[in-house]
Design goal:
mainly alpha; Four Helix Bundle (Hemerythrin (Met), subunit A); globular
């Protein structure tokens, strides 16, 4: 049974357990491939995920985050190992006492909402990576359930800021995750990795 008040750190731990092997499975030959998130190729999307995972560690501690630049984390030949380490730090940061309480310093939003935002990135962008590299990705139901309300509530603002695309008509018989993807502007069944 799912619980909407489940700690964000537990949900992030669940998401991380799926994200880490998905990132580890990205081959060097995949890095220039396009993704369903049209502004990013695989390399840029991985760098964005790194940036999010690192900055949201700071936001969990009510410290400022810096999204002004995106360092090239993939310049480190051990970037796959580093992603796993940084993701573990993210989970630990949100498990710290008080992380979910009050508001986040940099964003001025309720801390639980901020934690849910990184959970969304660690779920939807991992789907983007999986699709871009010809793999499937289905997150755990409790993660999807906890994200559905966030996406419903924040979608208009996210679209106005070009964080989400325009909603896509979901496929017939869409799963809860496919509905979530469609709400963020992704075609859950229509996008396929380029082959050749």
């Amino acid at each position: 049974m799912t619980n909407r008040t489940q700690p964000i750190s537990e949900l992030l731990g669940t998401a991380a357990a799926q994200a880490v092997p998905a990132v580890r499975g990205v081959a060097d030959s995949d890095l220039d491939a396009p993704t369903p998130c049209s502004e990013y190729d695989v390399r840029a999307l991985l760098n964005h995920l790194f940036q999010v995972v690192v900055n949201f560690q700071a936001l969990a501690a009510k410290q400022p985050a810096d999204f002004s630049t995106t360092p090239d984390h993939l310049a480190d030949p051990d970037w796959r190992v580093r992603f796993e380490a940084e993701t573990a730090k993210l989970v630990a940061a949100w498990a710290a006492p008080g992380a979910e309480e009050g508001t986040s310093g940099g964003m001025g939003l309720p801390s639980r909402t901020v934690g849910s935002m990184v959970l969304l990135d660690l779920t939807v962008h991992v789907w983007d990576l999986a699709r871009a590299t010809g793999r499937t990705f289905v997150p755990e139901p409790d993660v999807v359930e906890n994200l559905a309300e966030l996406v419903d509530r924040m979608a208009p603002t996210a679209r106005s800021m070009n964080v989400f695309g325009e909603p896509v008509e979901p496929p017939r018989g869409a799963s809860a995750f496919e509905l979530l993807l469609a709400a963020t502007g992704r075609d859950p069944r229509g996008w396929a990795a380029a082959t050749g």
